[in-house]
Amino acid sequence: MLKYGYGGRVLRIDLTERRFRIEPLDSSWIRPVIGGRAANTKRLFEELTPDCDPLGPDNILIFGIGPLTGSLLPASAYYTVTAKSPLTGILGDSAAGGQFGAEMKLTGFDQIILTGKAGSLLYLMVTESGVEFVDCPECKGKTIIETTETIRKEKKDYSIQVAAIGPAGENLVLFSSIVSSGNRVNGRAGMGAVMGSKNLKALAVRGALSLEVADPLVFLSEVEKIEKAISSHNEYQKRYKMGTTMLMKDLNNIGILPTKHFQEGVCKYVDEISGQKLAKNYKVKNKACFNCHLPCSRYYVVDDHEAEGPEFETLCSFTSRLGSRNLPFALEMNAYLNQMGLDSISTGEVIGWIIECQEKELIHP
Q: Residue limits of the Aldehyde ferredoxin oxidoreductase N-terminal domain (predicted)?
């Protein structure tokens, strides 16, 4: 039996038959790969039929966490979602932070493996005891936050963590995302479309188990060293203030900020769309992932929109990358795309490509 960081169990869910089984995580199997991303990749390689339809019932969708997820170690809150990508036809892999991974750890499952396709729209309620299959026709078309709220109200438990798809995933948009904690996004490779193809609106987790550490005092000592190293870093305050949006000016200063669909590397109006401008005019407060002492995510308010983020990629995708100096528009797009369950990077690329094609008269409106 695995101990110390691992839950030691794998949860397999057959959506077609509405059945699940719990099996032990083989220590000899996990030892060579250690973490959640590598374990997911190994599992997919071993069990997936390579030529399966990514949007068919034979594709495998895996939620995985590593041994440090849910521990006191800073920046260890991530979980990874893996499947054959409907966008690329090869390995699909996307990670997110927030609170979901830590709550999954408390269920005692290191991997949740989903196969088949449900006959109708449902969500899964996973606890340390297993799975409840819950039909949810009322969630069809709902946003991420609306879905999360519906599940928590129904279960009368606001500590439940929910990873859900929006309307984009339901409609099998190839670059649709999975979103947990309301705004923490598994954006890349179309994992939301895979989830939608299985008629799975959400995966909800609520755990009551504990996480064991082999030598708590030694581990705590190492954690404290890492926390001090992070807090004393000369870019800590900058990251605290702006998160990844600090990269707007940093990349512009060295001539590699994507501008006008990558046709240029310097944006002359970067001060109007920078992380500094966002923090000064729109930021309300900071937010951290589970147990992280660097709360680099931010809540903001613009017009009638309240949302979390954006990260650098989204801010850049809807400002300089499109040739736009409209910061409020970028913030509104961040809120909209996250709640629809659309990957902001791919969405921004589609729009940027169309704009460039129109400018070069390759296509016409």
A: 6-209
Are 253 and 349 part of one and the same domain?
yes
**3-state SS record for 313-345:** HHHHHCCHHHCCCCHHHHHHHHHHHHHHCECHH
CB 348 within 8 A of CB 318: yes
- At 227, the amino acid letter reads E
Bridge-based pairing state of the strands 19-24 and 91-96: unpaired
Which of 312, 225, 243 lies closest to 273, judged by CA? Answer: 312
Rounded to two decimals, the pTM is 0.96
pLDDT in tens, 118-161: 999 999 999 999 999 999 999 999 999 999 999 999 999 999 99
Strand ranges in 15-128 using DSSP code E only, listed in sequence order: 19-24, 61-64, 79-84, 91-96, 109-115, 122-127
Confidence at residue 41, expressed as pLDDT on a 0 to 100 scale = 97
State the CB neighbour count (10 A cutoff) for residue 299.
Answer: 15
Nearest to 241 by CA among 249, 74, 78, 317: 249
Residues contacting residue 277 through CB under 8 Å, at least 6 positions apart: 271, 327
* Cis peptide upstream of residue 310 (ω within 30 degrees of 0): yes
Is residue 225 one of the residues assigned to a domain? Answer: no
φ, ψ of residue 32 to 5 degrees: the values are -70, -20
Q: What CA–CA distance (Å, rounded) separates 352 from 98? A: 29
Tell me how far apart the alpha carbons of residues 320 and 311 are, in angstroms, rounded to a whole number.
14
For residues 321 and 245, membership in a common domain is answered with: yes
